[in-house]
Design goal:
heterodimer, A: mainly alpha, ABC transporter involved in vitamin B12 uptake, BtuC, 13 helices, B: 507 residues, alpha/beta, Rossmann fold, six-stranded mixed sheet, 19 helices, globular
């Protein structure tokens, strides 16, 4: 085959995307086949549940895309700075709790809805940032690895929610482990003609745009990248205060994840309960890695994962295939991405660089 | 020990005609070494003389290009340290090869082939402890041990594999004087039991005091082999430093003519020679402590003016690293007074670790300087233009400023670092550069270009501080020389003899 430069450019640029789509298709079919489910019906249900109709696209896929955009961006920001924040899930939960508390308290007052919504979102971001700040402080003061502390804090957050919905934030009848419903006027506005899709999408797109621009064009963004790439050089050659940059990136990451929780409460669930997130904070890691930690690509990969999650639900409902099958596919995707990056890295480092490292001793 | 009538059998280790080249640099040229059983053999030489490489070849870490290795009278081909260990060799590296989180017993068992029997290993460690007189707690974690205790673990590791020839690379460099004495006393007992030891060192006194035989390497050649009793400190110094500079002149030939021309253009010939040059760095009582709170540089006082290159020389661990970082403003825990410009260009030795972002573009690498103080929006088009100007003036061979740093050759990477750090930022401030082994790993042409750039910067009025592990490079460029030894800084005359002696802590 004469591989034209054009074809090669296409493969170089979209190789990973193609691999991802092929993996999804082949893996789904194989898994269905081995588990003894009808392949055709399963794939059809997955497809129609995700993008088969305007309703599926907006009310199922895009609604799930929103929290994945926030948390994916959160993970990307942290990873870019070399901070391995695995705690987006916990930060999301704390954000959700914060937003719920503000909304439930403020709806008793006659404050304008816009102000209350903004306040709830700010508190959500703040709660996420504080939750990430705990891990950042542990890292700075005691050298605790953030991979460990954030994952542990996820459980602390989960049980904190558990307590809140059975204690201070429980609904007035004290029967169900959930908070009271947030008043209609404090819900995020729905986008016209798009079913359950809410204005959180606009906020997510806006934040991703700001983030993408800031990383590329501002001094703060450059410090973030330099620190993540090589903290020693950032400090020595750039005079960058590395621990300040990583702390800020960590808290910014927490704020984004917290916003995911706030937006979810005000736009989708309208109440706080334990299972408010089906693991958006964990899926976010895959979202961010697939996107190569680039904010705009995070939006695209969030859409892909949103579609998968939406399709999984439909597959379970309509074809009787367990939704956990999609979790397997998501896990496979992560393996492929990590492997692809490792191969790319090895190729890169085996090029050039023949005249360095001459050790005379 | 059995004294065999055959000369060969008396030799525990024999290296003959060893050649080794690293990327065009002749590290060893027909080097030889005979280590007799029952003796301590000191291998002396300056940094880069090839002493560690020679013994790494003996231990199977490095494969020689030519030459033979004979262990206990049998010629061997060593593919790896495992082969050397099987032949009864042991090596204690300068940088220990222990696993910090594991216990002493586990470290000693590491590399064994059979099933791990903890009880057996612990008993073995205890036995070695009794035989050697080392206090070894088999269950202590290595990271909790002092440096000297870690060294004893390294030795015990070699002994547990029944090493009959022990190679120690600068073993006393990390020890306090009393610990050194104790180690060397033990080493004497070890060889008296019929073993042999090779001591790689640059400390003359130690070699003379403890060794039976001495071999001196210079620029990869064995320049002297003798019984320790037949040499003096003076003759060893002379052998180590040599009088001729031929070998290195050939290496730096392309610049020597140009640079000696530049050299003559010292401050005295500059138009404003009647004015006193401005002092750029002024230090009094400068002390730098490391993370453990140990002073690595003590009470240093010096001043450096514009338009001069001050060379720094010193053996590893003598404090030159800390001195350079303090001057460059990259050190923490500095006490004493130091007047320096707020922005000093710094060319660190390990450029991949400390100077560049390998996976970012050249423009981003240029923008890195001063990134900590940058505010607002970065005009990348402007940075790219600036980068491309630098690439032209410094002859950095790359298609554009968008190219990823990693794809450049080492020489081109270093030239870009140099361009970035030599950039004059604002005429108000004196222009100052600190360079640490700036030509490490570069070929002859790139080395010459780096030298020319530094001289040009000096002539433009920069104050330059340059460390090199190669005395000849210091001599080639420097107008004054500071030598560090055991944390103290001293100015010495600009000649090989004085620098070499000061590096070794001699008068």
């Amino acid at each position: 085959m004469t591989s034209s430069p054009f074809l090669r450019a296409v493969v170089a640029r979209f190789g990973l995307a193609c691999a991802v789509l092929v993996t999804i298709g082949v893996a789904t079919a194989l898994l269905l086949l081995t588990a003894g489910f009808p392949v055709g019906a399963g794939v059809a249900a997955l497809w129609s549940g995700a993008v088969g109709s305007w309703y599926a696209l907006t009310s199922a896929t895009l609604v799930r895309t929103i929290p994945l955009m926030f948390t994916g961006a959160a993970v990307a920001v942290a990873f870019r700075a070399g901070v391995f924040n695995i705690g987006a899930e916990g930060q999301l939960l704390m954000g959700a709790a914060g937003a719920t508390a503000v909304a439930l308290t403020a709806q008793l007052q006659q404050w304008p809805s816009v102000i209350v919504i903004l306040l709830a979102l700010i508190v959500a971001a703040g709660a996420g940032a504080v939750w990430a700040g705990v891990a950042a402080a542990l890292r700075n003061r005691f050298g605790v690895l953030e991979v460990i502390s954030t994952i542990m804090l996820n459980f602390v957050a989960l049980y904190t929610i558990s307590y809140l919905v059975r204690g201070p934030l429980q609904e007035p009848t004290h029967v169900y482990p959930q908070s009271a419903e947030i008043a209609d006027r404090l819900h995020l506005p729905r986008l016209a003609g798009a079913g359950r899709l809410h204005a959180g999408l606009l906020l997510a797109v806006l934040l991703i745009a700001v983030l993408g621009w800031a990383i590329r064009h501002t001094a703060i963004g450059f410090r973030l990248i330099a620190t993540g790439e090589n903290p020693a050089a950032a400090e020595s050659a750039g005079g960058i205060d590395v621990s300040r940059v990583t702390t800020r990136a960590f808290m910014c990451s927490g704020a984004l994840a917290g916003l995911a929780g706030g937006v979810e409460v005000l736009g989708v669930t309208f109440a706080l309960y334990e299972n408010i997130s089906p693991g958006y904070g964990y899926t976010a890691i895959a979202v961010a890695l697939l996107a190569g930690l680039d904010p705009w690509r995070v939006a695209v990969s969030a859409l892909l994962f949103g579609a998968l999650e939406a399709g999984a639900g439909a597959m379970q409902r309509d074809a009787g295939v367990p939704a956990s099958l999609v979790s397997v596919i998501e896990a496979l995707l992560i393996v492929i991405i990590v492997a692809a990056q490792a191969i790319r890295l090895r190729r890169r480092s085996s090029g050039a660089l023949s005249d360095v490292g001459t050790s005379r001793a | 020990m059995t004294a065999s009538p055959h000369g060969g059998a008396q030799l525990a280790l024999r290296l003959t005609n060893i050649d080794k080249r690293f990327d065009g640099v002749q590290a060893l040229d027909a080097a030889h070494l005979d280590v007799k059983r029952g003796t301590i053999h000191a291998v002396l030489g300056e940094n880069g003389a090839g002493k560690t490489t020679l013994l790494r070849i003996a231990y199977g870490i490095v494969r020689p290009d030519a030459g033979t290795i004979t262990i206990n009278g049998v010629t061997r081909s060593l593919g790896s340290p495992a082969d050397a260990i099987a032949c009864g060799l042991g090596m204690v590296h300068q940088h220990f090869t222990l696993v910090p989180v594991m216990t002493v017993a586990e470290n000693i068992a590491l590399g064994g082939r059979r099933r791990l029997d903890r009880g057996e290993v612990i008993r073995r460690v205890r036995t070695i402890g009794e035989q050697t007189g080392f206090a070894l707690d088999p269950l202590a974690r290595v990271e909790s041990l002092s440096v000297s205790a870690q060294q004893r673990v390294e030795i015990a590791k070699a002994l547990s594999r029944e090493a009959g020839v022990l190679i120690l690379d600068e073993p006393t460099a990390v020890l306090a004087p009393a610990e050194s004495t104790e180690l060397l006393r033990w080493l004497r007992r070890y060889v008296e039991a019929g073993n042999a030891a090779v001591l790689i060192t640059h400390k003359l006194r130690e070699a003379l005091a403890v060794a039976d035989d001495v071999t001196v390497l210079r620029h990869g050649h064995v320049v002297l082999t003798a019984a320790a009793g037949s040499v003096t400190s003076a003759s060893l110094t002379e052998a180590m430093l040599g009088e001729d500079t031929d070998v290195d002149d050939t290496l730096t030939a392309p610049v020597s003519s140009e640079s000696s021309r530049l050299h003559r253009r010292t401050t005295s010939t500059r138009p404003e020679s009647n004015e006193q040059p401005r002092v750029v760095f002024d230090a009094t009582g400068l002390t730098v402590t490391d993370v453990a709170g140990i002073a690595r540089l003590r009470d240093a006082s010096f001043s450096i003016a514009e338009g001069e290159i001050v060379g720094i020389a010193g053996v590893d661990g003598s404090g030159h690293r800390e001195l350079l970082r303090a001057i460059a403003g990259r050190a923490r825990a500095v006490t004493g007074s130091l007047r320096r410009p707020s922005s000093v260009g710094f060319i660190p030795e390990d450029r991949h670790h400390d100077a560049v972002l390998l996976d970012r573009s050249l423009a981003e690498n240029v923008a890195l300087r001063g990134a900590g103080d940058r505010r607002g929006i970065i005009d990348w088009a402007d940075v790219r233009r600036e980068t491309e100007t630098m690439m032209r003036t410094f002859d950095v061979r790359a298609p554009s400023a968008r190219v990823i740093m990693r794809t450049l050759s080492g020489g081109n990477q270093q030239k870009l670092v140099l361009a970035r750090e030599l950039e004059v930022n604002g005429a108000a401030e004196p222009y100052a550069i600190v360079a640490e082994n700036p030509t490490r790993g570069l070929d002859v042409r790139a080395t010459a270009e780096v030298h020319a750039r530094l001289c040009a910067a000096r002539d433009a009025g920069a104050a330059i501080v340059m460390y090199s592990s190669d005395i000849d490079e210091v001599l080639l460029l420097a107008t004054r020389v500071l030598v560090t030894y055991a944390g103290a800084v001293r100015e010495v005359a600009c000649d090989r003899e004085s620098i070499g002696r000061a590096m070794l802590g001699l008068g």
